[in-house]
Amino acid sequence: MPLVQVRDVPEETVARLKAQAKAKGLTMAAFIREELETIAKRRTNREVVEEIQRDLRQNDINVPREEIVAMIRRTRDA
């Protein structure tokens, strides 16, 4: 398995990660590995927009990408 090393992580961040790992009964390495796997599985914004456009096209609805992005931003920022 490849090794990933992160430098210059603020002490406060490390302390929070340690506390979160401990709360879950994991080593910090196991906790961070889980978090990285979760992040890697997330769809990108582009993938979400393309999926929305595909779904809309299947229903004969034409909404420009810019309008979809604006709707997502409004919802996220609300």
Keywords:
78 residues, mainly alpha, 2 domains
Task: Give a brief description.
The protein is mainly alpha-helical and 78 residues long. It has helices at residues 11-23, 28-41, 45-58, 65-77.
Can you walk me through this structure?
The protein has 78 residues and is mainly α. The chain has two domains: 11-41; 45-77, no CATH class. The chain has four helices and no strands. It has helices at 11-23, 28-41, 45-58, 65-77. α1 (11-23) packs across α2 (28-41). It is elongated, with a radius of gyration of 19 Å.
Secondary-structure topology with pairs:
Layout: H1 11-23, H2 28-41, H3 45-58, H4 65-77
Helix pairs in contact: 1-2
Distance between the termini: 41 Å
Average residue-wise pLDDT: 90
Class from helix and strand fractions = mainly alpha
SS summary, helix count:
4
Largest sheet: none
- Describe the global form: elongated
Strand coverage percent: under 5%
Total beta-strand segments: 0
Low-pLDDT runs of 5+ residues are none
Helix proportion of residues, in percent? 55-70%
Question: H/E series, N to C?
Answer: HHHH
Rg measurement, Å: 19 Å
**Number of structural units classed as domains:** 2
